Amino acid sequence: MEEVRPTRAELLERRAQIGLAQQGMDLLKQKRDALLIEFMGVMDETLRLSESLQKNVSEAQYSLTIAKAVDGAVAVRSASLATKGEIVVDMSGTKIMGVAVPVVTKGDSPIKSSFTRGYSVTGVSSRVDETADKFERILDVIIEYADIETRLKRLGEEINKTNRRVNALEQVTVPALREQVAYIRQTLDERAREDLFRLKKVKKKIESKKKAAQTG
Amino acid sequence: MSPTTAPRTAEPGISYTEYGYTNARLRGMRARLLKRDRLEQFAEFPDLHQLIQELMQTEYAPDLEEALIHGRTAAEVGEALRLNLVRTYRKVFGFMNGEAAEICGVILGRWDIFNIKTVLRGKNAHLSNDEIAEGLLPVGALSQADLDGLVRQPDVRAVVNTATTWGLPEAPALREGLVEFQRTGELSDMELALDRHFAERAEKELAHGNRNHQMARRILGIQVDIQNLLMVFRVARANLDASQAQRYFLPGGVDLTVETYGKLAALSDVDEILDGLRGTRFGPVLEEVATAYLESQSIATFERALEDYLTRKVIAMGGTDPLGVGIPLAYLWSKLNEVTNLRIIAKGIAMGVPTERLKRELILV
Questions:
Q1: 3-state secondary structure of A183
Q2: Cβ–Cβ pairs < 8 A, chains A and B
Q3: How far lies A70's CA from each of A14, A128, A178, A213, B59, in Å?
Q4: What fold is seen in the domain B211-324?
Q5: How far is residue A161's CA from residue B119's CA, in Å, rounded to a whole number?
Q6: Residue A95, pLDDT score
Q7: Which CATH number does B97-208 carry?
Q8: Inter-chain contact B346–A72, Cβ cutoff 8 Å?
Q9: Topology annotation, domain A8-206
Q10: Mean pLDDT in runs of 10 for chain A (216 residues)?
């Protein structure tokens, strides 16, 4: 236990600290609950996007398999060489319950039409073209998913951090302060009892001295 | 340097129009193609290993031995099939009579366009020469050596200049597209010019001549019609207006005139297009897969049905023409179809595609 001066002033200070810690704990609990509500909302959205991403990936892989099988890997490869371009993503930030989260927003949609992919559509089969379309849709979902997943991760980290703080206050700080208060009170009581005993003894001595003087 | 075109000369002693020897050999080769029930049996194999074992008992064995050095996946089987296709086409051109070689050469000119496009795309994407070479399929007039020569050029402009110096028939289209490429950095206009050039040139080369030229012209015409028809569906999907759609019309079709194409391209949805095609040769073909299209919402459903139709048509033409170009054309188509079917089976087995779904992709004739 931390070295404590068993004084009345110290007792008052410790009591004030307990009050403050409990107030902080309540506030942190409220923050944690609010973060949890936000987290659950983001979680639903993340699950929805995750399912959509899985579906898109499996559809795109299937299309790619069929395109490679029917048109040949050579034709798919050739068409893939024609498509160029960049994915524009804007990064900014916002705060949710004081938690800084990045916001990822799409620039231009990565989904192109058959006529803007860089190859002439007259020489590319619709299997290859539809495969390209499905992979572009994956990119589109990935950008949304990156945004929501980072948000979920940050909120999760913050909830953990808040939980650790609440636990530290609830299970370490407040019990330690209570222990200190109990110790100070015990020491002060003991001291009071000693004083009383001493006073009684002094009184007794004075009285016996007085008696001796009267008889003598 | 000039292009060393693929063998397009007749076997010594065979006259230009003598089909007897060519067709007799091709009938023999056709008899060795894998039969329908064998392919169906292959499609039911549980793993790729069993398919490879079976293929090792066929004419694909030497190509498999060469390709499987690098591994035993569907990609290596695909490479073996590619090698076999190139080797077989070269062999066939090696003994064809002059007229058959000339006519088949015109039809296979599509592959030259494909290869030139691949080289241009690779150069524009700054890929290494090896990476570009992996995407080539030298079964047209341009040999592997010619294509290697084009691949060695440093950039798109140099490829166009080399094609011009060599006097390749595609050079005017390349030059036409180069202007737009230099302005936008996009190859799509050059590619469109190449596709249009091929359709025009092939139509012109087959326009005059005997019944063999006419037969090839019909096949080419159906092929172009199919391309235009698929374009109509894509235009509807992309909501392109009719004037933009006209840009993508390829000349040389037999049934689908530019006017019909324009009318179909102005329609807004697939149902209307299907209604508009009633009474044409393609109507029943597309009606048959209309339900499958509704389920998949994929134009590829129509494309595969039309490919099926064309394959059966060309093979049927070969059956009615024992002493003409029908047999060489039917053989080339059958061989390509066999290679495609095997590739679908190999890839399908490797990726765990259900057997019934896999069989639906096959064109079994």
A1: helix
A2: 122
A3: 79, 10, 77, 129, 21
A4: V-type ATP synthase subunit C fold (1.20.1690)
A5: 57
A6: 86
A7: 1.20.1690.10
A8: no
A9: Helix Hairpins (1.10.287)
A10: 84 94 94 92 93 93 90 88 82 86 84 86 92 92 91 93 95 94 95 95 94 86
